[in-house]
Amino acid sequence: MNMIRQIRAVTWMNLRSIPQRFGASSVIVVGIAGVVAVLISVLAMATGFTHTVLATGRDDRAIVLRGGSDAELASTLSREATLTIIDAPGIRKDAAGKAIASAEPVVIVEMPKKSNASGANVTIRGVGAEGVALRPEIQLVAGRMFRRGVRELIVGRGAEAQFKGLDVGSHIALRGSDWTIVGAFDSNGDSHESELFADAETVLSAYRRNLYQSVVARLDSKDSFDAFKAALTTNPQLSVAVLRERDYYAHQSQRMGKVLAFLAYFVGGIMALGALFGALNTMYSAVSVRSREIATLRAIGFGASAVVLSVLIEAILLSVTGALIGAGLAWLFFNGNVVSTLGSNFTQVVFRLAVSPSLVALGILWACAIGLIGGLFPAIRAARLPVAMALRAL
């Protein structure tokens, strides 16, 4: 009898006996389902967060910060410095010949979350007159644009969904004055949807400031970046850091992405260890229950390799079943959910969880690894089972 036929026969025998061992077999399925569901759910947070932050950047936009700063909140630029930056070569001009760039103040306010009413930091971004042309992806979906010189705001869809009091028409108190939310916008799911926009000069006046945090400029093309950067970094009157906007936001996403990934693998690893012991115990029990059957098969000519592979196949099939259940639960309960977490600027970033095919594949790989390790030693024990001793027990 060839090897493939032997493996098929023994595997079929093992699988047919699963209903009689349903309670024990379900230990593997449930354990693996829990591991995969947790792993995919937390990694979906990391994937969604990273996608949201990276979607904010474009190759034909540059952001300028104070030299040595790695985030907007750590940066300050004087009015004179921003004027020099906006006059630099490489910036795209509008129909009137004005540079498409925006000197932007950024302030942090505390707003109650809808989920638990706890306070969380939200970003208010002051936007210059060229802000609309600078970010064409921003589209009003309700209300109207704020007016210059008036204490009005537009709110990103993400912030509106996550925080109380940010509906269009609402009034919020900032620095002892009343501000009106006059519109809502989306921007293709990027991190700006977690912010509120207002007129830059009005924000500076309200907060009694005269310093900006950044200048964002739209370039003639993505190839204009090097000339733009060189003109600013070689200017002895300036001390600035010039980055492609995409690179800036990629850097901003790294820390939180790594934290979420570590959490997923750490918690998933602990649960995987428990599932592994469950798989070992279950497969040892299954081999023990079928010891006479295995010995009989060995006595009539079935090889040890067929027995080993059949036990491994059973363990992997049970594990893959658990992985598919866990992935299905993660997709059902978490995919597309809107959540928020702390970003690099100590403000909340609103994003959607994304259960992608690659995460499902990763969960199945984890399940296969657990099933392989959990079934290996019981399989070896089955192959080494003394045939004469087992048959004498019949």
How far apart lie the N and C ends? 25 Å
Arithmetic mean of pLDDT:
82
Low-confidence stretches: none
Q: Biggest sheet, open or closed, and with what strands and sense?
A: 7 strands, mixed
Secondary-structure element sequence?
A: HHEHEEEHEEHEEEHEHEHHHEEHH
Rg (CA only): 30 Å
What oligomeric arrangement do these chains adopt?
single chain
Can you count the helices? 12
Strand segment count: 13
Helical coverage, percent range? 40-55%
Can you tell me the overall shape? elongated
Q: Hey, roughly how much beta strand do the residues contain?
A: 15-25%
Q: What class, by secondary structure content?
A: alpha+beta
Layout: helices, strands, pairs:
Blueprint: H1 3-16, H2 22-54, E1 61-66, H3 79-86, E2 101-104, E3 106-112, E4 119-127, H4 131-134, E5 139-143, E6 152-156, H5 157-162, E7 171-174, E8 177-186, E9 195-199, H6 200-206, E10 214-218, H7 225-233, E11 240-244, H8 245-289, H9 291-299, H10 304-334, E12 338-342, E13 348-352, H11 357-383, H12 387-392
Parallel strand pairs: 4-9, 6-8
Antiparallel strand pairs: 1-10, 1-11, 2-10, 3-4, 5-8, 6-9, 7-8, 12-13
